[in-house]
Fold each of these.
Amino acid sequence: METMKGLVWRGNGEIQLTDLPRPRLREPEDAVVRVTLSTICTSDLHILRGAVPRAIPNTVLGHEFVGVVEEAGPLSGVRPGQRVAANCITFCGDCWFCRRGFVNNCEKGGWELGCRIDGGQAEYVRVPYAHTGLTSIPPQVTDEQALFLGDILSSGYFGAQLCEIHPGDTVAVIGAGPVGLCAMMCARLFGAAQVIALDINPKRLRMAWQQKLADATIHPSSSDPEQAVKALTNGRGADGVIEAAGGEDTFQTAWKIARPNGVVALVAMYEENQTLPLPQMYGKNLIFKTGGVDAAYCQTLMDLMARGRLDPSFLITHKAPLNEILEGYRIFGEGLEDCVKWAVTPYERSR
């Protein structure tokens, strides 16, 4: 039996890089992908902390990856040798929800890779429903650019889309982490004239500013967010707010900085229940929209990258082989060394 290396979540916060059987095709829609680049996501940390009840122990983690198709089922829609980027959502494409574009709610899928079935922090991965779960990477797009296509870039795009942005709008993004930075990029695509970034990490705010993703930055510990946003919007508040932080009080900040009749898009993954203080917000007539990664626009985003309109590769601040992934979890998980995204290159057997 051929084996490979993969990072397995054992449950109770324990992860182990170990030898595993190399995956094989099971269904006609399957593809087996040789992983050329993967990454560690905050959602992986949520699994380790026990905040994802549907996660199954003894599963290989990882749902952000790109690679090359090694084996392809007859209904997979891909071919061996093809470079592909993975969608973190597994969806059949044919159920009631999929036909209406709500792929995150697929009756046969959802967040499966790296949560309920083996994911991409390994040398190889089996991708079910490859005809919907893999997007071909054109020659002009690098692995580093395509790496975030099916998760954080799709999340940022989804958040911007939920905000119903009109040309000239002001959009406030809470959280200048990977998803928030992608949301800022995508808010520009939808026509936002002013993007405001809010975060408690000054280095993340500096990155948003230096990458020209934000026109203004607010540190909630230094300025009252509500007053600061009003000062930047002639006293109205933000037309749209994208909540991408998921902190203890960021939900409250989100509705407070929105203007009356504005849209608040909640794309963060919370670990605790949030309170909706209806008496306090009465009369603001806010529209709340929530969602996980409804990654139904991977081809659109890939086309935008191919044409030079999007490039999220700057998010990669650290890169090391699969051999060092435990160190990657430590550094990324503890927020050390200004790590934004830790990219994982293939396992090096010569070590």
Note: The longest strand covers residues 3-11.
Amino acid sequence: MQISVVIPLLNEEESIPELCSWIDEVMKKHSFSYEIILVDDGSTDNSWHAIEQCAVKNANIKGIKFQRNYGKSGGLYKGFEAAQGDVVITMDADLQDSPEEIPELYRMITEEGYDLVSGWKKKRYDPLLTKNLPSKFYNATVRLFTGIRLHDFNCGLKAYKRQVVKSVEVYGEMHRYMPVLAKWAGFKKIGEKVVQHQERKYGTSKFGMERFIRGPLDLLSVLFIAKFSKRPMHLFGGMGVICFVAGAIILAYLSYMKIALSVYNMTQRPLFYLGIVCLIVGFQLFLTGFLAELISRSAASKNEYLCEKKLNT
């Protein structure tokens, strides 16, 4: 199979038939063998019924229905797990991503050898203050910390080699940082393509103001996971050693002053308490690193999602 299109969705009953029909037209036009994997992330409308109707008309459409809402990362994880295509395309279900971009994304992966191609919505139809400006700031921050020169990390329209989605584990809110996770998994040829962004035709955006808080926290999580998930002792242990040594030096200096130079009232100095604090914090950080090392070697699966129904999978 050439292409798997993975689409996580939440309450998009009006968009689903039109989107599936549009993708089918593009695939037939270019004679692609394909599958569409629609992951219903706990919708409360008739989205699953719309998926069932589409699957009856088109055997290439597959569906996964979560018992409750797990978030976009959960939907992508289950979609990636089910994907069988050589190239995996992800897109949103709100019709703001154009399926007409799929052939060129596929070509960039198969002919130009990219591991991942991310869409860039150069011209956006989103509100300036609530989406455009925060998006620019967010993307600039991620570029600064990761060194990946992409303009739009959060664009839902992306193309991956199959090996990438089978190698990178996405959970929590990590879907925003798939290029970062792919890079640190060893897939370094990451490209970008300007894609058409369309105005939302049905419904409303599912992303609220909480993303302004989650975004920076997710970035810190990704940076930590990418660099230290397999060796947490290197981070916590290193900081612990620095604090412990600093405390030991401070207390050694105060001890020398008291014993050799007969300077009194050492325990009443702020420097004495700083030394004690550094010793305690250093020991705690080292112990944290040790426990994190044990946990990382025996962690249970983080990706367990209860699926109520499946279609053609």
Note: The first helix runs from residue 15 to 29.
Amino acid sequence: MKLYQFDMAPASKRVYFFLKETGIEVPMVQINVRDGDQFQEPFNSLNPFNCIPFLELEDGTTISESVAICRFLEETNNTSKKLFGKISKERAIIEMWNRRLEIDGYIPLINGIRNKFERYKGKVLPGTRNDLPQVPAIAKRAIESCRILFERLNAHLNTTSYVAGEAFSIADITGYEVVQLAIAIEMDFDEFEEVKAWHKKLDKRFKSYE
């Protein structure tokens, strides 16, 4: 089994934090996506979506998408820490929040960043190189979507320690990366005090891994 990563990518960081939290160990191979290594062989054949991270199993199966990778690793390893939940209700609540954070924050912000900054010209869609033009309005809409998310999340975090309850979960990892992307797109979110305090708590936690 091998995990193909690029340490600086938000999706790769989600898997990295998951591994650190659970203590699961997987051999890693770094792919420099900035140089387009993912389009070269054998990586292109392993993962035709040309995104990272992706997990190559011993039988040749490839699993891409960070949450799918984390879920597989949790279910196939005997770890006491279950970031996807231990019972049906927990799993459903964690899944609900994780999806909402992705839909309203993570995905719009990824697209917004790729449409705002010059360095992503020709790379507006992850895993591609093409001549699709950048659309600045997508970046504006991403910030608007994330602001609505933060308004809801701010109120919610006033009632709970972590996103999906009193226990840390995969939803917190996703949420942390949403805030990191909001910072990257230069979004002003100073008024969301609960979100900022929760992010600061997670930032300290994750930086302890370095």
Note: The chain is about 50% helix and 5% strand.
